[in-house]
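Hi all, long-time lurker, first post. I run a small reading group and we've been trying to get comfortable going from sequence to structure in the token notation. Rather than ask abstract questions, I figured I'd post a concrete chain and ask someone more experienced to write out its structure so we can walk through it together at our next meeting. Sequence below, copied exactly:
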Amino acid sequence: MLRVAIKILVISFFFIVMTGYSIAAEKGVVTYEKDIKKITSEKCIFCHGSDSPTIDEFDKDKEGFKKKMKGPRMETYQNLMIFVNGKDAGAVMRRLDDGKNTKDGKPGNMYQFLGNTDNERAKNFEVFKKWVGNWTLKKKKELTEDELKTIKAIEK
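-- Answer (accepted) --
Happy to help. Here is the structure in token form:
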């Protein structure tokens, strides 16, 4: 009877410890709902919100929408994923890149909107990089299936 009680106690202790490790690990995981949505809501929605065109609409009149300060819609996880690993895979990475991943050292055209200060931009950029996982500047047609699979971009 004592052996059974000790085994139960040891097993219970093991599960408590493992649950603690699991919770601690999840805190470091970047997700759309927990991290990215806040950044996009504060920094991107003005031009990429629900009143913006879909990517198909945008492609039909890019210059017209640019004059109106409207980029393709990215206000939801599904719409943003089009530019992460969907139809226009890699676009988010190319546009938000800080320039350290390019030959000419120039940041992407949307990097400047990641924050009001260099520090804020760098911080938000790092959050995006962690979220995406496989940070690539390649275009969809250049990406292999294996490369696409290494893009994390977790929703929840």
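A couple of things your group might point at:
The radius of gyration is 21 Å.
The CA atoms of residues 133 and 151 lie 5 Å apart.
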